[in-house]
Design brief:
The complex is a heterodimer of chains A (about 400) and B (about 80). Chain A is an alpha/beta fold. Chain A has helices at about 15-25, 50-55, 65-70, 135-140, 155-165, 190-200, 295-310, 380-385, 395-400; strands spanning about 1-10, 30-35, 75-80, 85, 90-95, 100-110, 115, 125-130, 150, 170-175, 205, 210-215, 220-225, 230, 235-240, 240-245, 260, 275, 280-285, 290, 320-325, 330-335, 345-350, 355-365, 365-375. In chain A, strands 1, 2, 3, 4, 5, 6 and 18 form a seven-stranded mixed β-sheet that branches. In chain A, strands 8-15-9-10-11 form a five-stranded parallel β-sheet. In chain A, strands 21-22-25-24-23 form a five-stranded antiparallel β-sheet. The longest helix of chain A has 15 residues, at about 295-310. Chain A is globular. With about 80 residues, chain B is of the alpha+beta class. Chain B has one domain (about 5-80): Alpha-Beta Plaits, CATH 3.30.70. The chains are: A alpha/beta (about 400), B alpha+beta (about 80). At the A-B interface, helix 7 and strand 21 of A face helix 1 of B.
Chain lengths: ~400, ~80
């Protein structure tokens, strides 16, 4: 049986960064990455960027590591394989071809998967979700013949895909279940800035709507909504959220929630098993609670920290990370804890022309998160205030005044 | 034509003489800030700028450039050769 000192499940940003950092600390220890895609490490961020989609950036630029990188770093990269089970007692994992691999230390960095669209007719040609390079390739080859597209769901991917399709000259309809885009994370006023920017470019937004059925023979020709309305279309992009596929861990004894539960060192309840990236439900030292967060920088830094911990250089994970979307000449950024919650105080900080709105979320007198619609120049200050647990008691009324300098609050 | 912003670096013991940020493709992920916050920050357009080209050592700069998911950071050595990407 093959044994690796360090075995990593997942070849995305967390897994690859972990392997890179382990190699820097341990020049000889054997390392393997098991990935279910056939590609070397690539940028998932780039998949929904217009510059890439429209060919302004060459396609090969998506690869952040070349195939020979793995050999140079003495990392075995096992591609196109899925892990079907993990057995911590024998310290082994089993792959879908029944190959069993033994580990000394295991990192699980399997990321997440788009939620299935459980609608009659959802299997027809022309229905896509976008998470992986193969999804991108399918959409890219399908799109040249598309005239009317529908994007379903209010989120970053949907926002960016609406822009890409709009720039390609496709008529785009956005269908959201909510009253407005990004409800309930954004407030109505912030969302209106983004919605107006979309509508100004010709995007039609249908709110409070759900799809009943997909129509068409083998290929989508339209959607029937629950209110009976029909929307003609020849392509649908579905972005209704992601989930972590943890089926392969059900018998492992690893403590699971919607993700894999870890401490602040990204260690699970099982000896010599760590988790990092979108799949980790980690103990956040800044927010002082368990957090699951899916963004590039979070996954990258967690990969690094997990790698250091596995290679014997213990370090806790502590980071205020943000994720953002650009589109329709707007920039939308979420930072820290933005989950809607009753006992959070929300302060709106608007520019005088109301083109920029920041929502500041305060809990127990401290800033814990924020959303930005434009106005990102205050992002570094907001990150610092969250990170340093700065008490804002007594300043609440001034925070909404755009002329009040947030830097003055920094310790 | 890409919108490149160049930052010269004259640092003893460093092989890197120039840091370039391609502002057209920078999308403000801030992975460079997470790796090297003494060198990079985001400006008002949420794009990366260099605040101190001398602050980080070569290894940290390379890691910051490698961390960018759109490869918007280019590193040039003293002979004018692009070392990354």
């Amino acid at each position: 049986m093959t044994n690796y000192k360090y075995l990593i499940i997942g070849g995305g940003v967390a897994g690859t960064t972990a392997a890179d950092n382990i190699r820097q600390l341990d020049a000889e220890g054997s390392i393997a990455i098991v990935g279910d895609e056939p590609y070397p490490f690539y940028s998932k961020v780039m998949l929904s960027k217009p510059e890439y989609f429209m060919g302004k950036i060459p396609e090969e630029k998506i690869f952040l590591k070349q195939p020979n990188w793995y050999g140079e770093k003495k990392i075995d990269y096992i591609t196109g394989k899925q892990v079907t089970s993990v057995d911590p007692k024998s310290k082994t994992i089993t792959l879908n071809d029944n190959l069993v691999i033994q580990y000394d230390k295991l990192l699980i960095a399997t990321g997440n998967t788009p939620r299935a669209w459980d609608i009659p007719g959802a299997e027809k040609d022309g229905i896509f979700s976008l998470r992986r390079l193969d999804d991108y390739k399918k959409i890219k080859s399908f799109i040249p013949n598309v005239k009317n597209a529908v994007s379903i769901g209010g989120g970053f991917i949907s926002f960016e895909m609406c822009e890409i399709m709009n720039r390609l000259g496709i008529s785009v309809t956005l269908i959201i279940r909510e009253n407005y885009f990004w409800e309930p994370i954004l407030d109505k006023e912030s969302a209106t800035i983004a919605e107006k920017a979309m509508e100004a470019k010709g995007i039609k937004i249908i709110r409070n709507a759900e799809v009943q059925e997909v129509t068409g023979d083998t290929k989508v020709s339209g959607l029937v909504l629950k209110n009976g309305e029909s929307v003609a279309c020849d392509m649908v992009i579905v972005s209704i959220g992601n989930y972590c596929n943890l089926e392969f861990l059900k018998t492992s004894g690893i403590e699971l929630s919607r993700g894999i539960i870890t401490d602040e060192y990204l260690k699970t309840n099982v000896t010599d098993v760590w988790a990092a990236g979108d799949v980790a439900d980690y103990s956040d030292l800044i927010l002082e609670e368990q957090v699951e967060l899916g963004n590039w920088v979070n996954a990258q830094v967690q990969g690094k920290i997990a790698g250091l911990n596995m290679a014997g250089k213990p370090q806790p994970f502590k980071l205020v990370s943000s994720c953002n979307a650009h589109g329709f000449e707007s920039n939308i950024t979420f930072v820290g804890d933005i989950r809607p919650e009753k006992n959070k105080k929300v302060i709106l900080r608007k520019s005088l022309d109301s083109k920029n709105i920041i929502q500041l979320f305060i809990k127990f007198g401290e800033l814990i998160g924020a959303t930005f619609v434009n106005g990102a120049e205050e992002l570094p200050t907001v990150c610092k205030l969250i990170e340093t647990d700065t008490k804002l008691t007594g300043f609440e009324s001034q925070l909404s005044d755009p002329s009040f300098d947030l830097k003055g609050l920094m310790k | 034509m890409s919108n490149f912003k160049e930052y010269l670096r004259d640092k003893p013991d460093s092989k890197i003489s120039k840091i370039i940020v391609n502002r057209d493709i920078c999308i403000g992920v801030a992975s460079c800030v997470a790796v090297a916050d003494s060198t990079f920050k985001l400006d008002e357009e949420a794009k990366a700028i260099v605040i101190d080209p001398l602050a980080a050592d070569d290894q940290t700069l390379l890691m910051a450039a490698q961390s960018c998911p759109v490869q918007a950071i280019l590193l040039i050595d003293k002979a004018g050769k692009q070392v990354f990407p």
